[in-house]
Amino acid sequence: MLDMRLKKLARQEVSCRDCALHRICLPAQLPASEVHILEHAVERNRVLAAGASLTHAGRRVQALYVLRNGSAKCSWISADGEESVRGFYLPGELIGLESLAERRHACDVLALEPTNYCRIPIARFEMLLDMLPGLRREVVRSLSLSLEASSRLVTRLVSTSARTRLAGFLLDLSRRLERRGLVSQEFELSMSRRDIARHLGLTVETVSRGLTAFKRAGWLLVRGRQIGIRDPGALSALSN
Amino acid sequence: MLDMRLKKLARQEVSCRDCALHRICLPAQLPASEVHILEHAVERNRVLAAGASLTHAGRRVQALYVLRNGSAKCSWISADGEESVRGFYLPGELIGLESLAERRHACDVLALEPTNYCRIPIARFEMLLDMLPGLRREVVRSLSLSLEASSRLVTRLVSTSARTRLAGFLLDLSRRLERRGLVSQEFELSMSRRDIARHLGLTVETVSRGLTAFKRAGWLLVRGRQIGIRDPGALSALSN
DNA sequence: CGGAAGATTGAAAATCATCAATACTCGTGG
DNA sequence: CCACGAGTATTGATGATTTTCAATCTTCCG
Which of A97, A113, A145 delimits the end of a domain? Predict the structure, then answer.
C-alpha cells in the first residue's frame, strides 16, 4: 500500500482520475473501464521548456498531446517568411486532432512557458479508437467542438474592426480559463503582443493601442501581460 | 430485372455507387459492405429551392446533409443583426458535423441555388457509427479535414490585405471545384458580392473593387458572377 | 417596361499599418 | 547591487488602405 503510494508520488500520477484536469480532459466523459485502459497508453510527466516545440509543421504525426499546465501557440510560417498564429492551446485541450487525416502536422506547436504535458502515441491511440466505443464518441465530440471553436474564431476574424477582434480574443481566453476553474477575470497573458497581433491579423501597435484604449475606458486593467477584466459586458457588446 | 431498373429510375438512384459524387462523398473510402448498409439510411433526391434553408441556428440537429448539386451558404446572424458568413458548401461536403457535439446547429445553412441533397437522420447515423469501423474512420477523417480547412480559412482571414483575402477565396473555390471534376478555371459564383464580403470581413465595395482590379491586371475575367481565372500564379503569389 | 436587387464607381472620412522614437522588463554579468 | 543590453511594449506622426456615403449602372424577373 505504502509502496504504491511512493511509486505514485515518484511518477507524480499513474491515473487520469488523479489529474487536476480530469473534468476537462479527454477522459472526462469516459466510462471508468475505458479510462483505465486509455491511461496505460498515456506517457505522463513530460516537460517542455519555454520556447521548445511539440510539433513541427510537415512532420509526421507521432502522437497526440495534452498540456497539463502552461500554454502553447500553434503557428505556421508561410512561404514569404511571415508567421501566422492559428491559435493558443490551454491545459486539457487535445493537440493534433486536425492532423489525423493528413498524418502530418499542419503547424508548429511551441510552448509559451515551462510546460508539462501528456503524450499518446498515435498508433496506440488509433488501436484504442477501434476498441473503445466511449473513446470514439469522445474523439468525435472533441473534433466537433474544435470545429465549432474554429468557426467562432472565423466569426471573430471576420469582424472588420480591430477593437472588436481584440475584445473577442480576450473574452474567449477568459471563458476558456473559467472552464478550467481558473480565475477568469484576472490572468496573465502567456503570449506576446506580437503573437496576439499575428493571431488577429493586426499589427503589434494596433493591439497595444487597443489595450490602452480598453484600459482608459475602464474596461480592463493592463500591466504588462497581467490582465484584469473589469467590464466584461462592455467588451462583450463590442465583440458581438 | 426490368422492374428493378424502373424502380431505380423512378427514385433516380438507390445506391451511393451510382451517384456522380461517389468519388468525393463520404462513402468514397468506405468498404463496399459498409456502403451497402449506409445507403439504406440515406434519404435521397430531396430538393431545396434557392433561398430555402436546410438548418436554423439553435435548432436541434435532426440529420446530416450532403448537397448533390447546387451550393449553400453557412451564416450566422449576431445579436446586433449583422450577418457573418462562415463559409460555403459545395456538393459532396458533409454538412452538420460541427454541430454533432452540441446537438444544435451552430448556423443557418441556406441554398444559394436550386439544390438536390441527401439526408441522413442523426439517430441512424450514430447507430451506424458504432457498427461500422470504416464509417468511423471516415467521419474522423472528414472532421479532421474540415478542421484543417477551417485553419486554412483562418490563415486567409488573418492576412491583413483585402486583395490577398479575395485572391485566396477565389483560389480555394477553384480548387474545390477542381476536386469535384468540374471546370476550375471558369465558373459562376453562386453567392452575391455581399456574401463574399461578409465571409471575408470586407465590404461589398471593397470586394467589387478588388475584382475589377484583378480584371484590369489581366488575372481574371469578370462578367457579373461569371469568373474566369486567367493567371492563377499571380493570384497565388498574392494569397501567400 | 418598370421596378427592385445587385454591382460598380467616385469622393470623403475613418481606421489601421508603417516608420520612428522612447520606455519598460528581465536576466546576465560586472 | 547596479548597469547593461536585448527583447518587448508603448506612443506619436504620417501615409496607405478600407469603410462609408452617395450616385449610377446593370441584371433579372414579373
Answer: A145
User: What is the number of domains present in chain B?
Assistant: 2
* Contact call for residues A127 and B174 (beta carbons, < 8 A): no
CA distance B187 to B26: 24
DSSP string covering B29-96, please?
GS-HHHHHHHGGGPEEEEEE-TT-EEE-TTSBP-EEEEESSS-EEEEEE-TTS-EEEEEEE-TT-EES
Question: Can you read off the three cell numbers belonging to residue A18?
Answer: 488523479
Nearest residue to A111 (alpha-carbon basis) of A182, A191, A12, A24:
A191
Q: What is the mean pLDDT of the segment spanning A228-237?
A: 95
Q: Which residue has the cell 471546370?
A: B183
| Residues facing A75 on adjacent strands | A85, A108
Nearest to A140 among B140, B198, B200 (CB): B140
Strand D bases near protein CB (under 7 Å) are 8-13, 17-22, 26-28
Distance A166 CA to D17 C1' (A): 20
Query: Which residue range(s) make up the domain with A229?
Result: 160-239
For residue range B113-171, list pLDDT tens digits in order: 999 999 999 999 999 988 998 998 899 889 999 998 999 899 889 887 999 999 999 99
Q: Do B135 and B233 lie in a common domain?
A: no
Cα B75 to Cα B83: distance, rounded to the nearest angstrom:
7
User: Which nt has its C1' nearest the CA of B166?
Assistant: D18
Question: Where is the domain boundary, A145, A170, A205?
Answer: A145
Of A128, A154, A113, the C-alpha closest to A36 is A128
* A10 and A55 co-located in one domain: yes
A65-79 residues labelled b (16+ CB within 10 A) or e (exposed): bbbbebbbbbbbeee
Structure-model confidence comparison of residues B11 and A189, the more confident one: A189
**From the C1' of D28, which residue's alpha carbon is nearest?**
B224
- Give CA angle at A80 (A202, A53), nearest 5°: 75
Q: Do A114 and A40 lie in a common domain?
A: yes
Q: Which of residues 50-69 of B touch A (CB under 8 A)?
A: none
Distance CA B73, CA B111 (A): 6
Residues B30 and B139 in one domain: yes
